[in-house]
Amino acid sequence: MVSEQRALHDVSDRSTQDIDPALDALFLDVDGTLIDIAQKPTEVVVPPSLIVLLKHLQTRFGGALAIITGRQINEVDRLFNPLRLTAAGVHGCEIRTRPDQTIEQQALTVSPANVAAISVIASRYPGVMIEPKGTGVAVHYRNVPHSAAELLGDLQSYFAGQNAQLVVAHGRMVFEILPTGFSKATAIEALSRRAPFAGRRPIMIGDDVGDLPAFDYARRAGGLALRVAGEHFPLEDSELVSPNAVRAFLDKLVSTTSNA
Ligand SMILES: [Mg+2]
Question: Within the chain, which residues score under 50 in pLDDT?
Fold first, then answer.
């Protein structure tokens, strides 16, 4: 589409000039940012070219590239197999500080009793899917968006009464049950204390409300927040129009800075 090409052209021209692989660090959301959203999280499609691109970016940025996602890191590994990347999963509740390190769980696993309670609430809404993720639980309502408000009310009233350690966060057609005190910002902050991220300017790319704390962190640290259009950010408020545009932008970032 002409409009998409023009938007991509505009943003990539401006932002690739602003980004220096020797001085900056890339923090990338996955769903809705690197890959298109699917009806179910297990049904997403990863273009093989994306895995090659991420490998090149990882090298180009001296290892200062991390995946910052709501998925578990094991899921990220499955999607990008055989590539291993530095990553924060479940909104900062899991961190792998280098590609060859083990995954460190930062928060307690959600108790079986709480998972069961969430499952009971979800079962009242046919079409709602729950995804236990160890330190968190995702409640997907993409198939029944009209039930969102009522479902949220049920979840909030359960957790308000039961467990102050867990909160309900909103995402794209999903409610994330997460431990308090964790976010994509805490993930970037933790990684930014360590080599090769320390001292680099954070560049965060994301598409969702869960990326907002990371955007705030990146801006406060003198970096960039690049929004991807979708169900959360309207086109006119976004720097990148789609995951396809993000991949083209990152591709351009590798090719235009390779001789810098
Ligand atoms: Mg996303």
Answer: 1-13, 258-260
